[in-house]
Each structure stands twice: as C-alpha cells, then as structure tokens.
Prior knowledge:
- This protein is mainly alpha-helical.
- It has helices at 2-23, 40-57, 71-75, 81-88.
Amino acid sequence: MRTDFIFDSLKNRHNQLVELTAQCPEDKRSLVPEGFKNNIHWHIGHVLTVTDFHVFGLSEFELNKKLPATYQDFFAYGTKPGAMLKALK
C-alpha cells in the first residue's frame, strides 16, 4: 500500500514536470538566466537524477533504477550545464 502511494505520487510529479517543461519554449530551455548557474534542461536532469537516487538507489528497489550512472556526473548537487556539454563534445 505504502509503496503504491509513493510510486503514484512519483508518477504524478513526473507528469507535472513534463507539463511544466512543455510550457517553456524549446529555444529558451538551454538559456542560463542572468544571476543563475543552470538552465531548464539541467534542472530537469537534476530532478530526475536526484529522484532516481533517492527513490531507487537508497531503497530496496535499486534494481529499478532507470537512468545511466553518468547522470550523477552531470546532474548531481554542485554540477553545472558546462560539465555535461564538455563531456558530449
């Protein structure tokens, strides 16, 4: 019962994230606003990576992790979009 509630909540929040992202024009998602360190794409990756780690990595459901291990390098606390861009070149 508890597990179903958690995964239903996770699914609902994931859907909300997708809906919110769709409201931001695609050409604006890679911009880093003045006074900020990260862009929308980085924040989406960060939310997904941190959620994947906390929900699956720290639980009995570790085998259900979906994201590649490299996402920790790109989207963990303290990272910035520049690290991901350098790795992709």
